[in-house]
Amino acid sequence: MGKLLLVARREYLAYVTAWGFWLGLLFTPLILALAMGLPLLIEKTQPARYYTVLETGTTFSDHLTEYLNDRRAREIERLLSPVSGLSEDADASERLKEFRSLRAQGTALEAAVLQVAPELVPAIPAHDFVEVPPPAQSIDDLMAYLTGEKLVSGPLGARELYAVFIVGNDQIEYWSDDVVSTDFSRMGMRVSEQMALRNMFDAEGFDERLIAETRANALEIELRSPSAQSETGQIAFSDQAPFFMAIGLSFLLWLLIFSVVNYLLTGTIEERSNKIFDALLTSVSLPQLLTGKLLGVLFLSLTLVSVWACSSLIFSLALQDALPPEISQALAEALNPRLLAPAVVSFFLGYLMYGAMFLALGSLCDTIQEAQSLLSPVFIVMMIPLLMIPVAISNPGSPLLEGLAWFPLLTPFLLILQVPNDPPVWQVLVQILWMGLFTTGVLWAATRVYRAGAVHGAGLTEARGWMMGLIGRKKAASAHGSEAGDR
């Protein structure tokens, strides 16, 4: 045991004393935060784009302006919804109904928010598109504005003209220098459909204002669940927290395994190429060396998790007064042992499984280039759970997803995602047992491959020959058994 711990200590110190480890420790959370928040930040910081409409009258222009305002109002309705967890009143549904009623009466968005929920005024979405008077009356003259050769004046200063709608009797033309995004053109299509619907109502003598009034008076659907914590069964953010935490834990597990097993791979290749194995094996046995390497990098991953967990705890304690009660309750529910226990077991077994595979592959390679040819299938398999994370939450009952959870290489990740849906206890235990058995088999096979590569110097060619020889011996034994049976 003492020699095993010495090997683990050597591996741990070799990585933890390197600058790259601490830089990764610091920058990984920042990069993840940017990766998750950057798309939203880009969307929020997108400057408003100018558009203009060429038509006889202002019918299409007015309807498009109304549509854009309704689009912003729907964002406020989402924030007013009780399920969002951002509303501190018990009467969130009443406030949402009042907001819709004010909008149906023609109250401006800002005024309606100020009257119903003043605290949400800073959250009112900015205008994505702003209409400006047409600087010219023909598309030929507007080309210079669309291409940016000329700027058009508007309430936000002089800017390039983003789009032009030309409304005719039998069609609407949409002109824009942006040939990729079709979001704004689809908005124009929806407006055209609404205009056609309203024209039909007018022809039938139906007052279209009744539609808005009817919508404002519609019964609000309250989301309830028998598994909700509330006595009334109403779904709150704290009920959804375990699902979000499962996504986070599954992604964290994937990130840790994907990161730390690369240490095992590169370290093994370096030791093989520098003939360090010979010196190490004069002091320790092969099982001790293999186990010590796995333990050393495991301690390294636990260091990563500990630092990130402590930083998150300090950050939460510093902001505990600013956090809404719903967030605190959600965190308490998310840290439920029912969710954490399978996550911890999945991490250890998943790490041992992939770590042993990477050690075995690294022991057969003299260079990183050789390893890449072997690792490509492993990396492809590891990308599957990453792609499955959002799908598993939106389609928890998929038979295909349940079947994939029994595939041992995917079980560590998909098992965590299934726990919030309360699968049978026997199913979780059997999946963990099956994953443990498979991990044991991987460790046994990795030991044999590691002995051949690290101790005896076998490479990819020898390993391929060994596998072909093994297959040949099995075929020969099978044929010999068949001949004996015929006799």
From TrEMBL:
Spans through the membrane: 12-42, 243-265, 294-319, 339-362, 374-393, 425-446
Ranges of residues in domain ABC-2 type transporter transmembrane: 213-447
Topology versus the membrane: Multi-pass membrane protein
Highest taxon above the source species: Bacteria
Primary localisation category: membrane
Alphabetized InterPro entries for the sequence: ABC2_TM
Subcellular location: Membrane
Keywords: Membrane, Transmembrane, Transmembrane helix
Protein name (record): ABC transporter permease
